[in-house]
TrEMBL record:
<dbReference type="GO" id="GO:0005615">
    <property type="term" value="C:extracellular space"/>
</dbReference>
<dbReference type="InterPro" id="IPR012674">
    <property type="entry name" value="Calycin"/>
</dbReference>
<comment type="similarity">
    <text>Belongs to the calycin superfamily. Lipocalin family.</text>
</comment>
<dbReference type="InterPro" id="IPR000566">
    <property type="entry name" value="Lipocln_cytosolic_FA-bd_dom"/>
</dbReference>
<keyword id="KW-0813">Transport</keyword>
<dbReference type="GO" id="GO:0036094">
    <property type="term" value="F:small molecule binding"/>
</dbReference>
<dbReference type="InterPro" id="IPR002345">
    <property type="entry name" value="Lipocalin"/>
</dbReference>
<protein>
    <submittedName>
        <fullName>Allergen Bos d 2-like</fullName>
    </submittedName>
</protein>
<dbReference type="Pfam" id="PF00061">
    <property type="entry name" value="Lipocalin"/>
</dbReference>
<feature type="region of interest" description="Disordered">
    <location>
        <begin position="145"/>
        <end position="170"/>
    </location>
</feature>
<dbReference type="InterPro" id="IPR002448">
    <property type="entry name" value="OBP-like"/>
</dbReference>
<feature type="compositionally biased region" description="Acidic residues">
    <location>
        <begin position="158"/>
        <end position="170"/>
    </location>
</feature>
<feature type="domain" description="Lipocalin/cytosolic fatty-acid binding">
    <location>
        <begin position="28"/>
        <end position="166"/>
    </location>
</feature>
<keyword id="KW-0964">Secreted</keyword>
<dbReference type="InterPro" id="IPR022272">
    <property type="entry name" value="Lipocalin_CS"/>
</dbReference>
<dbReference type="GO" id="GO:0005549">
    <property type="term" value="F:odorant binding"/>
</dbReference>
Length: 170
């Protein structure tokens, strides 16, 4: 009984700890979009407005803002876009195809997940991306990403593999 009580006490204390601060070294660098998922799949399918290929993130001022270099495809041509997101608490916000509010979630030394909510004036769409430094991810990292989607209400069948269509310049 004493062990159960101490375990519960530890969980309560851990749940009350403030979130860990993002380290610029966890975020800044060249990335490759591996997977994306959304509760409104049409937004991330080929030609969809939220199908983006992130290639670089850069933290500034202790990650109070993040510069994002990404591509979209328009008529099979890669168009380079840059955005700067400002942090408010644990959430970043920027404008692209509406208002976007997102969290950066380091998953390992080489992977990062992004959970975003896009508000286009009509509908809010939940979107995630799994990014990697390099070309691939492990099965464990994919499982972590799928769990994130499940927690956020995004069906597994709404996942798209971005590696098959990202032929944009590095």
């Amino acid at each position: 009984m004493k062990t159960v009580f101490l375990t519960l006490l530890g969980l309560v204390c851990a749940a009350q700890e403030p979130p860990t601060e993002l380290e610029p070294s966890q975020i800044t660098g060249d990335w490759r979009s591996i997977l994306t998922a959304a509760d409104n799949k049409e937004k991330i399918e080929q030609g969809g407005p939220l199908r983006v290929y992130i290639h670089r993130l850069e933290c500034t001022d202790k990650c109070s803002s993040v510069a994002i270099k990404f591509y979209i495809k328009f008529q099979d041509a890669c168009l380079l876009l840059n955005a700067v997101a400002e942090r408010d608490g644990e959430v970043y916000h920027t404008g692209y195809m509406g208002a976007n509010f997102f969290e950066l979630i380091p998953m390992s030394d080489n992977t990062l997940a992004i959970y975003s909510e896009n508000v286009d004036g009509v509908k809010t769409t939940k979107v995630t991306q799994l990014l990697a430094k390099g070309d691939g991810v492990t099965q464990e990292e994919i499982q972590q990403y799928e769990e994130l989607n499940k927690e956020r209400g995004i069906p597994t069948e709404n996942t798209e593999d971005l590696t098959e269509t990202d032929d944009c310049p590095q």
